[in-house]
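Reviewer 2 asked us to include a model.

Predict the structure of this chain.
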Amino acid sequence: MSPSLEIAVRVAAATVVFGGMALWEWLAPRRALLVGRAPRWPGNLGILAIDILAVRLLVPTTAVGVALIAAEQGWGLFTLAGLPLWVSIALGVIALDLVIYTQHVVFHHVPALWRLHRMHHADLDIDVTTGLRFHPLEILLSLAIKMAAVVALGAPAMAVLIFEVLLNATSMFNHSNVALPPQLEPIVRWIVVTPQMHQVHHSVVRAETDSNFGFNLPWWDRLFGTYRAEPEAGERGITIGLPIFREVAESRIVNLLTQPFRNNI
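Predicted model (structure tokens):
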């Protein structure tokens, strides 16, 4: 798989999902935004641009590239076990999702890592751009963890590409300000993390912030006891964000980049 093909697939998928979710939010928003798009989107999308630039400049290959290297060298659990390719692809996607769930939990409970991750949670509204808003240092650290997992597992390149596309797509989906039909949503949240499920994770209440960690598959929260069906204040009463960084000026790129290094706790 060539790097150009990988990039083309990922960019095309992300563009389609972003456009679709943004249009859905505009036509049928789930809740009224507290701050709105204009003060937030330049910062959120600006951070995304910085993330992409940082990865391109500082990381010599992608997670898919690492998977190809691991395959050439015969590294990883799946390779050593001699699993059929289709089994390795399916297990690879599921295992990488568990890795990201575990990483997410750890980033919430280790103070230094929480300082990086809390920038994502400091958004005063939650919409499709929130799913793209991560500090560049968190992005780089997350990529290193993901690459280590790919090597350890021996995940096939196709599994890694599928996972990357799904992770990006579901992050935008479950952060979006949209609502699934009430009859359908309880069923869908057994298959994928829904916006109503994930909004609990963005509650200002810390016990709710430390729940519903899944980005893609919803099973891990139920399995490990971190699942909350709904916020205590209810669908309409939830307050999004953190107790700190509640000024609209915190949505500016400079303030977003410096949040981990300020002494607010």
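Residues 3-261 form one domain. The mean pLDDT is 96. We have added this to the supplementary material.
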